[in-house]
Amino acid sequence: TKENGSNGYSFFSESMLDNKFKNIAIENELRYAIDHNQISVYLQPKYNMVNGELIGAESLARWNHCTQGMIAPNIFIPLAEEIGEIDRLEKNMIKEVCGILSTWKKKGKRIHQTSINISLPTLLHDGFINFVSHTLVENKIDGTFLEFEITERIVMKYEVEVNSRLQQLRNMGIEISIDDFGTGYSSLSYLYKLEVDRLKIDKMFVDQCVENSEVVSTIISMAKALGLQVIAEGVEDEDQIRILKKLGCIEAQGFYFSRPVPHGEFEQLLEEYSTA
Ligand code: C2E
Ligand code: CA
Ligand code: CA
Ligand code: CA
């Protein structure tokens, strides 16, 4: 319920994570959860703001805990990184997403590009590229139906290794976007050399765009100049949509359109859109 936590989920409080004994217990529970499919995929639709079409989805991890209920990723993703389990978690997300897309395909539904958040340890993990291509083949899904979202922080750090991995993924047809774009305080020169397709404007700038549209406007023109696509995240109202469209941003996701939903609910969105 809404009162319980920042994202409307009950969650392990910060103070609980400070407690050493509780912490070890939580770590073990998280390992168990990753091994036993207790981390599930929620999907948030992405839309074309000009024609209103559903164009894709972002997959977001949820921990369905047996006693704590749904736990938000802001709590367990950093923990998974800390204990070295993030690559297993994200590989499971990739498997789940490909499985869901494959099921819809078999049912004759129209499938859309779905993005997955990928962290640095996962991207650089030995065998990651093989794992991805194998998972695509196994599920008979074309690489163009996947997009990987990586944060600006990742891109700034390990330029050469990261870029070669990104190139291999793009060779499979997978698109790459830079998540939370604009929050990394980096020099922008890296964008010229980088193997990416899209910038994802961080919610922070979307929040401000009605009062001050300068940052959003700059990001959109920069994307245009570099031949990159652009999407706005965290869109919550019509004023924001009006400004973003005026500035030439076409794609968006946010609570205005839909919250992230379980895949069964997303399937109904697909239905509504195909009969509309
Ligand atoms: P993110 O990648 O920036 O994902 C967007 C977050 O913003 C999601 O929160 C989503 O529910 C929320 N959001 C979307 N639209 C709106 C809106 O209009 N208003 C507001 N207030 N919020 C909106 P969520 O699902 O709690 O995820 C939080 C973060 O957890 C994600 O931020 C991402 O960094 C991380 N995360 C989730 N799943 C994974 C994963 O599998 N791997 C990694 N590395 N990170 C993940
Ligand atoms: Ca993301
Ligand atoms: Ca984001
Ligand atoms: Ca964000």
Automatic annotation (TrEMBL):
Superkingdom of source: Bacteria
Domain EAL, chain residue ranges per copy: 23-274
Residues of the signal peptide: none
Protein's UniProt name: EAL domain-containing protein
Species, as recorded: Metabacillus endolithicus
Lineage: Bacteria, Bacillati, Bacillota, Bacilli, Bacillales
